[in-house]
Amino acid sequence: MVPAEGGIVAPSKKYLNFIDGKWVPARSRKTFADINPANRDEGIGLFPESEPEDVELAVQAAERAFSEWRLVPPPKRGEILLKAGLLLKEKKEELARLMTREMGKVIRESRGDVQEAIDMALYISGEGRRLFGQTTTSELHDKFAMSVRMPVGVSGLITPWNFPTAIPSWKIFPALICGNTIIFKPAEDTPLCATKFVEILEEAGLPRGVLNLVHGGPSTGEAIVRHPRIRLISFTGSSEVGRLIGEHCGRALKRCALEMGGKNAQIVMGDADLDLALEGAVWGAFGTTGQRCTATSRIFVQEGIFPKFKKVFLERSRAVKIGNGLKKGVEMGPLINETQRKRVHEYVEIGKREGAKLEIGGRPARGKGLEKGFFYEATVFTGVDPKMRIAQEEIFGPVTCLMPFKRFEDAVRMVNDTPYGLSSSLYSRDVNFAMKAIRDIEAGITYINGPTIGAEVHLPFGGVKNTGNGHREAGQAAIDIFSEWKSVFVDYSDKLQKAQIDVD
Ligand code: NAD
Question: Measured in angstroms, how far is the CA atom of residue 159 from the centroid of ligand 1?
Fold first, then answer.
């Protein structure tokens, strides 16, 4: 068992995989280092660099556990999840502080991330007493018909680093309630949050082998995707990686749910409550340092109010306080790693080359206490053509484009003109615009008078076009990913009845 956290962790502290109910190193003993993005000198720990043979052991354990777990009555599975939810609640502050150290988001947001997992545990544990199917009629005499949900089997869950507790909970809890067993590979930038999450499920009484944690990077993920006896892949991450995973699963006829990138937009109509729209835009663009799949990376403002909106938005964006997310008053933490900082900066250079006007930001943030972290300034472009790469591609950093429009229809057309379709927002007091936005914006989520971020766990979450492949997480939709329908017919007529044939 990994000992409990207390204070600063020595860089050499070693963490383990969790396979078949035991904490074990990778067979090769290889490890990778995890550091604090706000201070690269602060090591979080060393984690196993797992290889295909570790994945194989995890699959064997999950297969063994499946034969019993699938038979545990769902309300009993729900009780374990409820207990996990209560443990998460008890440890919320400890987990949130670890998250800020490991991933960088400001402490208030880390608390929100853990809260989302608590909400999901409470919501989905009740599902153990529902998992509804249908009973229906039969076209034949003395015949009973119904459909029931069955587990899929051993499931591979691959998650990103930006919501290190919430996203795993969105996959693990629904997968468990449906009776599946799991191989869980968290992002290599947030393995400690994942370890703590698995410890909580262990403490809640999950039987051995039901949940197996296998740390590692892309090659570990690939070993999971390619494993022939893993029947389902649920992936959240970039569209580039999701496409590769989808291709493989397509060929292998493997069930596959993909949640990927976004290029989310906020529309501000001339009649909007300007202060509210400004507050929403700053939060949407720079919350989580822009590293949310639902971040507001395009803001369309109606011409009449554009100059005023721009002036105040730039003032407020310039004032966003950057620093270590554990410090009081800090509003924006670092980017997750140096690679991500370079990527964000490259996009800023692309924007300048394309002819957009860099209004503020556009460089690594400097100042006392920022020297050792991957900090980047809040960055705003104007003079952006909606076809430019900065307005089309996901940047995943604190960069947003401010663009004017004339008519509502023009804004909707530009909002829809990207390969993505995750989240969207409209600020207006006119109910007609609100209803048209709900109808016409091509996205999985539309907020009216709210920013592009703010999902709740009991509603479906996901997007259209390159954001997803038709599935949704959370809500009842999650149950559809993690269960197979079985149709059942019970004939009590004592004779052979032929459907479609023995009917007049
Ligand atoms: P990523 O695609 O680089 O990695 C995600 C996960 O996949 C990690 O665990 C990684 O190790 C693994 N992985 C990488 N290559 C793999 C491969 N070839 N085979 C199997 N697994 C592989 O994404 P990221 O940088 O961790 O996260 C950022 C991305 O996630 C952004 O694009 C963001 O929009 C997206 N995201 C989407 C949602 C959503 O619900 N739509 C939510 C959060 C983040």
Answer: 6
**CB of 421 closer than 6 A to ligand 1?**
no
CA distance 82 to 67: 23
445 confidence band (pLDDT: 50, 70, 90): very high
CA–CA gap between residue 427 and residue 446 (Å, rounded)? 11
Confidence grade of residue 1 (pLDDT, cut at 50, 70, 90)? very low
Q: Is the pLDDT reported for residue 146 higher than 70?
A: yes
CA of 500 to the centre of ligand 1 (A): 48
Task: Count other C-beta atoms under 10 Å from residue 272's C-beta.
Answer: 23
| Among the listed residues 350, 352, 359, the one whose alpha carbon sits nearest the alpha carbon of residue 316 | 359
Instruction: Evaluate whether 364 touches 260 at the Cβ level (below 8 Å).
Output: no
Q: What is the dihedral of CA 292, 296, 297, 301, to 10 degrees?
A: 180
Q: Would you name the residues annotated as active-site residues?
A: 259, 293
Contact, 272 vs 429, CB < 8 A?
yes
Binning pLDDT at 50, 70 and 90, where does residue 503 land? confident
Binding site membership of 414 for ligand 1 (Cβ less than 6 Å): no
pLDDT value for 10: 52
Question: Cβ neighbours of residue 423 under 8 Å, at least 6 residues apart?
Answer: 262, 264, 293, 294, 443, 444, 445, 446, 447, 452, 453, 463
The mean pLDDT value of the chain amounts to 96
Q: Ligand 1, from 162, 235, 481: best to mutate by most atoms within 8 Å of Cβ?
A: 162
Q: Contact at 8 Å (CB) between 192 and 44?
A: yes
Residue 451 in contact with ligand 1 by CB distance below 6 A: no
Does the reported pTM lie above 0.70? yes
Question: Atom of ligand 1 at shortest distance to CA of 259?
Answer: 41
CA distances (Å), origin 415, targets 15, 214, 238? 44, 39, 20
Task: Map tokens 């202060």 to a residue.
Answer: 275
Between CA 158 and CA 162, with CA 160 as vertex, the angle to 5 degrees is 155
Helices 166-177 and 74-90: crossing angle in degrees, nearest 10, is 160
Is residue 157 in contact with ligand 1, taking CB distance under 6 Å?
A: no
Q: Which tokens go with 259?
A: 């949640």
Amino acid sitting at position 25? P
